[in-house]
Design brief:
Number of helices: 12
Strand order of the largest sheet: 1-7-6-2-5-3-4
Largest sheet: 7 strands, parallel
Order of helices and strands: HEEHEHHHEHHHHEHHEEH
Helix content: 40-55%
Structural class: alpha/beta
Number of strands: 7
Strand content: 5-15%
Shape: globular
């Protein structure tokens, strides 16, 4: 749920549990597509795994992403939809909601958590209900994130997961350094040094769990709905997905506000900056 300085997690540095809840036209791959005109058509064939990012509060990005996903589904694609917005411990509750609900508002009322503006996700949830696409919970709970911060990345994984994702070895240095940079920038450079390693571990654990949950859906294709930080090719879920055989075809699409995004996604859609209060103000008051 990482979305840099422009949009914080909605909690102060001292509100540790809130921090642990997480914060990271057709064109050729890597090109930036303007969204000023009518929405473009989806680019490329349906992959086995389609990673769709977001700036969590950017309404324009939510609308565009939904439109492009809707076009793929209406053309006949039937993926499972893994969502960062649902904690994985709530999968049974989410399954019951999908079976008993006729509309997205019903699902939201049953399974909603406090960290999200759920009406932004209503269209995607409704699309899943209409076309009978499985909704899959993809995120760590605050309790599990706290365990990771306290005990390390391995804390929430079984022996097979530790083996598959090589968690008995140090995380590659480039990946840890890049995640640390993102965490520090995302908290305006004001995060206490003692908290940085734990929060990096929590972010890495989220990415690994999303990769694992995506693989659990095989042989069905999968869409991941998550923050731009999670869907990055270089340091996000894609980095972990194909550590395990068989190799899957993966496409990452970022829905981004102005900034440097080169090399992070296969496709980048440019958004206008969402108006919001200065996200660093709350840190300066501490």
């Amino acid at each position: 749920m990482m979305y840099r300085v422009r949009l914080m997690c909605g909690a102060s540095v001292l509100a540790t549990l809130a921090l642990l809840s997480g914060c990271a036209g057709v064109a050729r791959p890597g090109a930036v597509v303007s969204t000023a005109a009518a929405p473009p058509a989806p680019v490329g064939p349906n992959p086995q795994v389609l990673l769709l990012g977001e700036v969590h509060d950017n309404q324009q990005g939510h609308r565009l992403r939904y439109e492009l996903l809707r076009q793929r589904v209406e053309a006949g694609w039937r993926p499972a939809i893994v969502m960062e917005q649902f904690d994985r411990e709530n999968q049974d509750l989410l399954d019951r909601a999908q079976k008993g609900c006729l509309d997205a508002q019903c699902v939201i009322q049953i399974v909603h958590g406090p960290r999200w503006d759920w009406q932004l996700y209503y269209p995607v949830i409704q699309l899943a209900l209409t076309y009978h696409l499985p909704l899959v919970a993809g995120n760590l709970s605050r309790a599990d994130a706290s365990r990771v911060v306290r005990d390390g990345i391995q804390a929430t994984f079984d022996p097979q997961g530790i083996k598959d994702y090589r968690l008995d070895q140090p995380v590659p240095a480039d990946l840890r350094v890049a995640q640390q940079k993102e965490i520090e920038m995302g908290h305006c450079g004001m995060l206490p040094a003692m908290m940085v390693d734990g929060m990096v571990n929590a972010q890495l654990a989220r990415d690994i769990w999303m990769a694992r949950i995506i693989r659990d859906q095989r042989p069905r294709d999968v869409v991941l709905i998550a923050g731009n930080g999670h869907v990055r090719k270089d340091i996000g879920v894609a980095r972990w997905l194909n550590l395990v055989q068989p190799i899957l075809t993966v496409r990452a699409e970022g829905y981004v506000e102005p900034g440097e995004h080169a090399g992070r996604y296969d496709q980048t859609y440019a958004l206008s900056t969402q108006e919001r209060p200065d996200p660093c103000a709350k840190f300066r008051k501490k």
